[in-house]
Queue: 2 jobs
Job 1
Amino acid sequence: MNKKLKEYYSARATIIKALAHPTRIFIVEQLEKGERCVCELQEMIGDDISTVSKHLAILKNAGFISDDKRGLKIFYSLNMPCALNFLECAKKILKNRARHDLALTCK
Amino acid sequence: MNKKLKEYYSARATIIKALAHPTRIFIVEQLEKGERCVCELQEMIGDDISTVSKHLAILKNAGFISDDKRGLKIFYSLNMPCALNFLECAKKILKNRARHDLALTCK
DNA sequence: TTACTATTTGACCAAATAGCCAAATAGTTG
DNA sequence: CAACTATTTGGCTATTTGGTCAAATAGTAA
């Protein structure tokens, strides 16, 4: 792989990496339902608010979500619904795995 | 988030994490074209063969690919084509970004 | 059996990531 | 302006990940 190609794959990996965290998956799925402010997400997630804020920054930099400041609050919303397709793919794998584990158990 | 839910999201994150690496994206896209042995992939990628092997193990554990040993060689193939949907989503984001950067440049 | 090829595994180090706390920033309200 | 609320940023440590080398494993062939 030459340098140019490597950079291209790295850029794509960075985007995927943004979804590769339990909290960030949760956030994306919440935002599917509509915009949420940081404090609402923080309450659902339960981590320190600075931690939640950093996760949001990662999703935003990757391009999955965008923010809108209104008064004191900042509302985040999903702007790449295609992220959900992939989350579905991960779910599908988990389901297959569960079925397989069950098959083993019943042997 | 309770413990059970957290585990569920972590399991999904582990699957997505498997795709969150330039080399592993490359591998999945190669396997889309058909099965490949480790040595073929190693040659295309250029990293140490043990490195490639570890990337393959990660994709296999996640459930994206499977292996078939025939003689000395081990052939890997893709068994979750839905992975490609997501890789497409990452591509789309990159394209949007490029269009946006261009717009800024032309202002 | 010995030598050879393909691949995986383990030990190790360097770099990246995650989470928490404290401090900084920005907007609001009295 | 001072006090307050919502959020981000910086600094720190602990954990995870990625890569390399050497050794182990497995199949083949002489």
Job 2
Amino acid sequence: MPELPEVETTRRMIAPYLEGQTLKSLVYDPSSRYQNLDLALGKKVKRLERRGKYLIAIFEGDKLELIVHLGMTGGFRFEGSSHTRVTVTTEQGTLYFQDSRRFGKWIVVAAGDYSSMPTLHGMGPEPLSSDFDLADFVDAASSCGTVKPWLLSQKPVAGLGNIYVDEALFLAKIHPQSVRLSKEQATKLHAAIIQVLTRAVEVGGSTLSDKTYQQLDGQTGYFQLEHRVYAREGQPCVVCGTPLEKIWLGGRGTHFCSSCQVLGA
DNA sequence: CAAAATGTTCCTGA
DNA sequence: CTCAGGAACATTTT
């Protein structure tokens, strides 16, 4: 499920159950994906933050943090199921973390110690904050390798995954295999990233056909209705009508319009 | 049955 | 040291 809009929507919906609350119990599968969780028992959550696709619960005293990554299929619900991997209880109630593919990760660390998570440690600026500086982005893009894997690395900017990279590149009219972006291209891409993520957060993220990503009560997101290229291969481009293409790039399915997004343009 | 699925990390080789 | 590519991780769905 999880790219920035889905993780941010998740943060907002579970925050009332965690912020200002003491963790009364944490029950989790025996797995190395859930580490040091007992250190958080009895601790009170001060704030629930988000960095890229990571949720970070900061405890009172600022000594410990609980980092949660949703992986590919992780999400929170009011009801448990056969896919429940972690169960959290506070005074506000119980939340069930479902994760069918088990790529999600929970770990309690010393505050700010992200040494065991290189991607979080090297995370680029938050795209929906003033940290996402245009001049810095243009400069970095001028020497980037293939643009799609570069964006997926989380280093130039935090929080983009396969869906929103394809959508942002389409809006900016940049071919996903482009190498080294002009100032003009990078400027358009910077704006496209902000545009697509802002809109996706507004409508609660994307719920794909597998329904993995839902709100606590089963409510879906709605941004999938506004996808312009993702999972639309063969359908007409919303701008020019050309059938959209799907190629394999860096191990990921990649959707684009061969007419609007021209290599070397 | 084979392939693909929203992500991160580790390894290898340049 | 950095970058790119590929495999691994675990499971479900098409």
